[in-house]
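Support request, please re-run this one:
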Amino acid sequence: MKRIFRGFSVVLGLSPFLLAFLRDRRRWILFGAPRRRTEEAHRRRAQRLTARLARLGPTFVKLAQLFSSRADILPEPYLSEISKLQDHVPADRAQDIIQVMREELETSAEELLRDFQEEPVAAASLGQVHRARVEGRDVVVKVLRPGVERAIALDLDISFRILFWLNIIFPNHHVRAVTNVVREFSVQVKAEMDFRREAENIERFQRFFRKERKVRAPVVLPRFTRRRVLVMEHCPGTKIDRLHELFSNGTLSFKQVMETLTFLYMRMLMVDGFMHADPHPGNLLVQDDGTLVVLDWGAVLEVPKWTRESILGVALALGREDIDGVINGMYHLGMISPEVSRGEIREAATEILRIVEKAKTTNRQRIIEELIGEVFDTFYTWPLMLPQELVYFLRTAALIEGLAFHYDQGFDGLAFIRGVVRRNQTELVRTTGQQPAQIARGVIEETQTTLRSVRDLVTRAEREELRVRIHPRDIQTQERFLHLQARRLLLAFFATGTAVITSILFVAVRNWWLLAVGLIASLVMYVVILLLPTHLLENPLRHARGIRPDEWR
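Re-run finished. Output below.
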């Protein structure tokens, strides 16, 4: 019963916005010209959507934060409004938080509770943070909110059911991209709700950066680490967007802080393949000696070597204006759905090349933000999907430029990042473990292999030895198609039979309500027949969920 009421509230809350978005594309949803809306109308709708997501609770607040960086899914002004949605909710009672600590830590909880401050220093959707003192040092205690696992599992279950029908009725790249975000979130949030994972992430980061004096993360106290409780040292510092006074009095160097931040995220993405996935000013503190402290390691991004190689390959192809190389890299990164033809995507790749060429020749300030905006507009317009690695990289680039512009309105972000890359070129080249000569040799070898394959193909064709094999997946697709046509045929018979039987009964009893209900039911079945697509027979999300409601019962 709880699931039904919650599902009804979610559908009732979000369906007006879904219908409004659909009518923006087609006035009558399934047909008609796009509906014209002023920018002010979109801004008002974006404000209402943000308020509605906040009222729906922590799951939708967390999802909104992910969508705020996905301009391939949502356009402006929705991105700007959703990005204002803060991950702050009313704090739980201190007694409830203490109860969780006692359940998790048992006898060790009393040691923490001696100097435990009941007033929280932060209250987010998943956890709540309090100050304490233990073993003679100041610490912060992060506690998972009671009942949050069940609430998020229920909301995700409802979301997947809604997305299943959206994929059936409106199969397009925007709906697929939304589905991918929710699927990734379901896996990510499960890891975020296990604080032992966060402790492991912090220790891993400390291993990677143990030789760096200007970057650090809080030290974890393993004796107090549990699934729902995490105790770390208290790291004093100033939020990175509140350093005006320290810059003005000479305590800190603006250039050094920005260089440290830029190099940190470049190295995490392109060298270590292990990236902090929640970059915002609240998670970045700067100490008086210029040390950058990175907080909140619940969400991290694993960037495998092949992805780093693909990103580097696309960057090199962009640099030499090789449009086919760009398209190949985009397919390899999963930015293009396999059923989209190369011809259809070529114009999108050409547009991206134009944007990059524009970035090379412009001298305007804040070019990174404008460049990212144009790239995102291209992804929103064309059937492209941004891989999450690039999403976080672009999001971090925009954050760095936005922070720098916050302090210096004459800041040239593109030139600054180029300088950082140039000064750290040796270390950043470790992206793929290859030197430039090795990369060039690999390109030559790949070209030779391709030419040999083409020659072999032509030779086989001349000898009439060329055979075409059907992949088992294609056979399954045909079987599904035939099954669906059979279902459609049965449903059509049933709809026709319902209409005929209803008409006969009406002639016998003269009941207009019976006639109306019967004909409406028949009409609905015919509509289902028309709308049901040929490529979706089962829920594609059934086995893709990272978190399930029955885990937390």
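Residues 533-545 have pLDDT under 50 and may be disordered. The two ends are 14 Å apart (CA to CA).
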